[in-house]
Fold these 2 entries.
Entry 1:
Amino acid sequence: MIPAAFDYYRPKDMEAVLSILVEHGDDARVMAGGHSLIPMMKLRMADVPHLIDLQDVPDLSDIVVSADSIKIGAMVTQAELIDNAELTKAAPILREAALQIADPQVRYMGTIGGNVANGDPGNDMPGLMQCLDATFHLVGPDGTRDVAARDFYEAAYMTDREDDEVLTGVTIPTPQGGYAYEKQKRKIGDYATAAAAVQIVKDGDTCTFASVAMTNLSDTPIYSADAVEALVGTTVDDAAIKAAIAAMLEDIDPSEDNRGPIAFKNHVAGVILRRTIERAWSRA
Amino acid sequence: MKDEISREERVDNLKGMGCSRKRVEDARFTQGKGNYVDDVKLDGMLFGDFVRSPYAHANIKSIDTEAALKVPGVVAVLTAADLEPLGLHWMPTLAGDKQMVLADGKVLYQGQEVAYVIAEDRYAAADGIEAVEVEYEELQVVVDPFEALKSDVILRPDTVDENGKAVDGAHGPRNHPNHIFTWEAGDKDPTEEVIANAEIVAEEEMYYHRTHPCPLETCGCVASMDKVNGKLTLWGTFQAPHAIRTIVSLISGIEEHNIRVISPDIGGGFGNKVGAYPGYVCSVVASIVTGKPVKWIEDRMDNLMTTAFARDYWMKGKISATPEGKITGLHCHVTADHGGFDACADPTKFPAGFMNICTGSYDIPTAYLAVDGVYTNKAPGGVSYRCSFRVTEAVYFIERMIEVLAIKLDMDAAELRRINFIKKEQFPYKAALGWEYDSGDYHTAWDKALKTVDYDGLRAEQAQRVEDFKAGKTRKLMGVGLSFFTEIVGAGPVKNCDILGMGMFDSCEIRIHPTGSAIARLGTISQGQGHATTFAQILATEIGLSADSITIEEGDTDTAPYGLGTYGSRSTPVAGAAAAMVGRKIRAKAQMIAAYLLEVHDDDVEFDVDRFVVKGAPERFKTMKDIAFAAYNQAIPGIEPGLEAVSYYDPPNMTYPFGAYVCVMDIDVDTGVTDIRRFYALDDCGTRINPMVIEGQIHGGLTEALAVALGQEIAYDEMGNCKTGTLMDFFLPTAWEVPNYETDYTVTPSPHHPIGAKGVGESPHVGGVPCFSNAVQDAFRAFGLTHTNMPHDHWRIWKTANELGLHD
């Protein structure tokens, strides 16, 4: 549990960050809260000769809630997400999900930027960001660019981010309607056996909008457009929920691990999604 | 002289036995002022760490240390070739086997120690480890003990003769190269006959999975060889420091007076820190070679993957009864997976520990037990995790067999227990497998437990729940888990208990200072049990000095009297008895001094709380403080100055704590998630020394029981890769996962222990594991489940529900 030797950098601005990244290519990594990267380095599963700490880089820690969107800086911690009353009012699902991440000690250090950028399929925020149709903001030597959360993840730990790019923040359209984040885990601090994020809008008795994303059931988070389609236009009755679950199961591809075999994970994914939809619908 | 305070106040001031004295250790621990082995920092200290095998079974073709020696900060690299000239490439285990210190030609499990890198700090050591090049030749891996007993793959060439035939082992004949021992208790033929002719026979096979004690502080040591005076000092996480000193002396040839072993504060042991590990030997050798102190501290993965595991018992049982439910016979066979070396820490004559307590709390006339130990490509161990030797396995076995029999008889499991309990008047009770239970009152405890939880009400609620479930009104089932356990602790009488020939007595030495305070030292070592608090209470009551005036010291072999350490709930039964006995020696001398001072005959004074009084004239007295001062400073004819004593206590028998536990659990059949609604624990540990410390022990032991029953395991894949090497996958419960515990008690003192105490630290674990497990299994009883193996984590519970057709 001792990492290989590395150089530690603590630049004061993004320009300096980018110049180190450009110089060292994939030998350099940026670190936000360090709660994914440092354990990987200690296990010597990640070799990072040049570690760039983002703590002193300005303008990465703001939460800006405006009328129709919310912008969250990459260095905002899970604890700050939980404690921000304005944010909770505008997007209560963020707080509900963040409270289910790890434990308080981790949440004081772990950031939203690190959580979404690392590409760990176990992380909760990527699926949530897909549910909320977030946009990720990246900066690199050639300037800034935006990527939709739903297009960002390619495989476990593989994302659309280039080695010399830094994820600076996320913007989400202010979520509408009912919400729920359900996560089954073995214990505090665990990744999900299955987790689901749902936003849903009710007009009269009818669902007019829905969004469904699943966590830790594939090597990337899964936004299920077919599950959404199964819900929109229905009264979210048992048949609609069953159809949404069936659609979601087509999209996920869980693998066996210590949490259990594939059949179990598929079953639990369905149960969790049902509960998430029902709870979100009850709040819509 | 008028006494200004009442007798009651004098009793209170002692803070003796029976009072919930606050733990004196906690001020230190809660302020970060503990002193653990990793806090030991010496001038010029080096750090050692291991190159470990990535393979579970492989020959070692070569080890190239050249690159490692070039890593900045690396001082030396030890391999088996370096240790062989010293005869230290292998070491004896506590179980009579021997174990490689560093891989000698081959490795037998993943994580096995291959080379020891010595460096200026642990960072350089880690880099050095990376640079050591080992060429392995992979061999066929055997992880299944049943397969091991049939396999042509010989794991331990050192235990076969030139024809590949197994030679006798430490515990008798071996029937296969991968077989370690067969150990039997009871009467085979009569038991088999009773079962063959019985009207009712229930049979079950159960696997008590492999898990790990996982103390928060991992194992480690600092070895410091002083070449000038020839003395070796060894600090370490030793549950038995005196035994470690003797073993170090025996294997190193250093005379025992030149070895000082110190166990500083220990952050939990639970059996993991009883045995001797390669890290200790390598650190000692490294210190001798370099002339500098050398520290070795495991990381979490090292600890989980290589130092002693617990359980891994495949148990096969048959239990016979009359149609009315009176048990007539019990048959048990165990296939015990010991891993690559037999490194259990059991008394020598008991290679399967006290598994022969498996008749439990029941009057079973005929019984037979056989245990076969087996080598596999897994880490060695088989220690007693928060229990006396294999007692958790035994109690789990019988408490499951009782449930299985209840199902067979279509009978209530609480009633089945009641009609088979050993009756109060049968004690001392000689059990069919050989033990003599000292005392018990099981019916009283059972009735109290069932009444407190409203057992009948719970069963009615459960029956309603089953109906509601069948009617589709709920997806949650309710389980009522029962367990009634009898432990066997306090090893033990030297006539039948020794480890590597070291008798399992224990000791206490006390020195009363002239002003009436004292220091007492014992052969045990606290790992969190609170000895500094509770042993002072025993002495306070026995001697009549306040517990606050008595310092307790343990763990330094240069100062403490010899003893066999702390595990198997032996501290109170053995060292606690020594404390009581040493107190009585002090009191005997104090009585003579008091009589002299009061100018009466010895027989005319009597002890009263904190003083000796003249019989019939309580206004004439000398306090223990007066007596202590006089002992040192007054010339008393015929009596030596000073007031100190030592007592070595060889217990006449084990002690047999017992208890009655009930767990009420809801189970979500769709997700396998469990919710413990209620947990009631009644413990009878005989005389209670400190109720608050007892309650803390119960909470801790129950939490470890919950962990084991509901998810904590060391799992391997078929290649022998350990799948649970970190706390992400190895379940260590936090406050979040732990339910509220209700504690209760009865008091049935041990008749042979000087103060009647039996020990309590392990009861909640021993009783808790079957209780949690039975709750899960009971929830599914109405749907046809007879038995399913632990750990009852989400997916295994889901699988049970699935196989019972509850997901259709």
Entry 2:
Amino acid sequence: MRILVCISHVPDTTSKITFNSDHTEFNQSGVQFIINPYDEIALSRAVELVEGTDGTVTVINVGDASTEPTIRKALAAGATDAVRIDAAPRDAWFVAKQIAQYASEQSFDLILTGRESIDFNGSQVAALVGELLNIPSVSIVKKFDIQDRDITIEREIEGGKEVLSTQLPVILGTAEGVAEPRIPNMRGIMSARTKPLQVLPAVDVPTLSTISKYESPAPRGQVAMVDDVEQLVNLLHTKAKVL
Amino acid sequence: MAILVYVENIEGKFKKSAFEVVSYAKAIANEQGTDVTALSIGNVADEELNKLAGFGASKILKVDQDQLNQFINKAYAAVIAAAAASEQADLIILSNSFSGKGLAPRLAAKLEAGLADGAMELPTFSGSDLQVKKTAFSNKAFATEVITATKKVIAVNPNSHEPVRDEASATIETLTPSLDAADLNIVIKDIVRATDKISLPEAEIVVSAGRGLKGPENWAIIEELAEVLGAATACSKPVSDAGWRPHSEHVGQTGIVVSPNLYIAIGISGAIQHLAGVSSSKTIVVINKDPEAPFFKVADYGIVGDALEIVPKLTAAIQAHKANS
Ligand SMILES: Cc1cc2nc3c(=O)[nH]c(=O)nc-3n(C[C@H](O)[C@H](O)[C@H](O)COP(=O)(O)OP(=O)(O)OC[C@H]3O[C@@H](n4cnc5c(N)ncnc54)[C@H](O)[C@@H]3O)c2cc1C
Ligand SMILES: Nc1ncnc2c1ncn2[C@@H]1O[C@H](COP(=O)(O)O)[C@@H](O)[C@H]1O
């Protein structure tokens, strides 16, 4: 089985999100970047699936050279090889077009993404690539199992889950439950240095939308500390008007 | 040029988000001097379909082929695209629900439309461009997206647009799009839904608890409080990681994002990753035994004390309040 895992390079979850003075760009200074936590789960599941077989796991990232340490971490966690599409990711549509272009020249049985990236987090890439490749896509996958070419997938729905089945190839956006993230071991880290990382040029993509400005949420007013529950209920009724 | 809105149902009944998106589309249509066409897929009775008119839909398209009775994003995207073509709609609106997240991008890619996902306000227009504010960076920030493409899709966050009644007289038409067998090669084997529970992303009140509750055996007081409030229950990540509560209740940056009218956080410290998922709640109440807990800094109301003592008292006080009003 050949698996493609899409990984995005995002600010660490503890990062404070700030913008440049004209609010058009994310301020990267002092920010630590990591593999998107959901992509780590996807990668971990992919490595689990090919373990002990002749299957391969290719990771792909759309990004400039600054993402290479993140790609190496994915190789250390067990990916077979890596591809970087050399371009700053403009938006999910741009990223999806690059991934679909690469995947259409290969033949992957399974493509995995995270359920969403924690920076732009549109949870778009899986469904966009699915449509571009004309294969089924399932977003927010909690669990999946493969038997020959058949795949059974559990996806999250409001207040529950749905179980569906189809045939490979498919693309899935994975969430918690699919696997536990892998901690790379020393051997993984050593071998990651010599695993192939191919850099490919980006294809042109028409612009459909842009971001004109970013804003931080307005700070909340001062907290009102209350002494007893009767007072709280009263405030929620008369002031906040939520009861 | 009408605005097309896709409305979701569960077993023949519209979700709350269906009325939200119709109402959202109607507000735009009023400003643009156009009409709203609502598209419903699946087996929904005319009486239920007519409810959409109460929120401003003046035409209701129903697609009720048997093969489409269950949600298959690939097939649904094709149907919505077909409806958009027959209605000559360049603006399509749907809910950014779990299903919507798997559907909106497919639809946008099919139409080469610009997609604004996670919209939280009404858009504004300048010439042929549309601008809309949406969430970004896991709710730690907002972005204004400008859609420049001719075709536009907006996926509206649940609970961000209150449905407003706006009576229209609607006609119901049946649409029978041709289906591609390749779009239907997914079999839905099972749906498990806790029907007695309020759906977390759509809930207007959320009662959430963290590690401060000490163990799963103490969750009865959380459920009782949720019950008197008609609220959904939620939890912090370590609580679901430990298996005290299901993963589907985990809110935060790596869980579900909620924006209820009232969020009550009990025994939760207020880590940045947790706050990311709840900070757009309209009113936040924090109950924590540590007066220095970071959550108090972003709360509207706070009580310092032991949750195991305070929560039952709060439940009783709300019961008394409801009995008197
Ligand atoms: C990559 C990553 C992603 C993450 N994503 C998320 C996420 O999406 N959502 C999330 O929630 N977390 C997330 N976390 C974890 C987050 O950093 C915190 O660890 C977590 O939110 C803490 O949960 P807690 O508040 O329940 O527990 P704790 O931090 O242990 O806090 C317990 C609180 O309970 C109070 N308390 C104790 N006893 C009582 C009592 N008897 N009565 C009242 N109060 C009491 C304590 O004072 C304390 O404030 C993530 C972490 C990482 C690294
Ligand atoms: N620049 C990127 N390169 C490769 N994969 C990406 C990139 N951005 C997003 N993805 C993948 O798409 C998923 C969903 O991203 P998003 O649609 O931005 O929420 C992520 O979890 C990744 O798996």
